[in-house]
């Protein structure tokens, strides 16, 4: 059966949610209809544009740029502070509607999700017609608009939802790739940042179609693993599943906005190790093991990408989670400066039985578990800084962050 995957993306989420909230409270100005942006404290690192209206975009305001630069381009720009607790409330209402139609909903970020609608035609009718009904219901009941992308896999569905905005439904099925996706510039391909774009241009590759037709060995030579990954995506290939979390099966995650942009792999790995330590210790504290690991990267343009993998066995071992995170990072990173790194784990299990052994796997998992437990005991008794990895010493970019359990 041909899969039917939806990707639903809230249009200018933070700004839309601010606008809806203010109108409900009696406001007379719709922030979406004036030059407006959601930003942070100008005196801190978060003094950047988080979301903008179409009118602000027309003035040249870009997501991720400093507020000072945005105000030079648009002196009349209305800047409102971010209210993340409010955004979580609207995000939950958004997700609740999606889950009414299928249990197979994967929240990809606070303002977007995938839905596996395969085999649902007898209930919803034509998927494209239903997508219009879904986005109209969200607009009618919640007050903000969304884009819906439809395809047979997650990647193409996400590409489709990024076509013309706002309040649109687009399809990008495999048979439409040649006409809808291949003529686009390579920069439109998800996971292709400025550095990757420049590398592709040096190879004479300017469109997604040219990338798809390039010998994959050439791309591997110049871009390593990422070259193969974007070649697969340019050809519309993606085998990842819509990974929904059962009710009550929480996810353990941690992320950090770094003090200075990360531009080298060694520093990124140290940050991932720090994140892995805090996530793994939280899992052990709650008697949980995770089989799914996900890594998120946000660059200086506020573009966020994430990738996940399911491990052979559930684990709470720091080193295993770290190795999985590094593998995902290598596939994701396009050499753009990194502002935020995050790790999230899921597919949780509280079973404490032994793991299924694999052929040629000589790893001493029991020894690794004992080492983690010893570190946990020392930190619990003497404080979290009582024992620290040598690689973390005197490195200002690697800062311990408070765990978040979501």
UniProtKB/TrEMBL annotation:
Domain of life per record: Bacteria
A GO cellular component entry from the record: cytosol
Keyword DNA repair in annotation: yes
Reactions it catalyzes: DNA(n) + a 2'-deoxyribonucleoside 5'-triphosphate = DNA(n+1) + diphosphate
Subcellular location per the Swiss-Prot or TrEMBL entry: Cytoplasm
Family: Belongs to the DNA polymerase type-Y family.
Protein's UniProt name: DNA polymerase IV
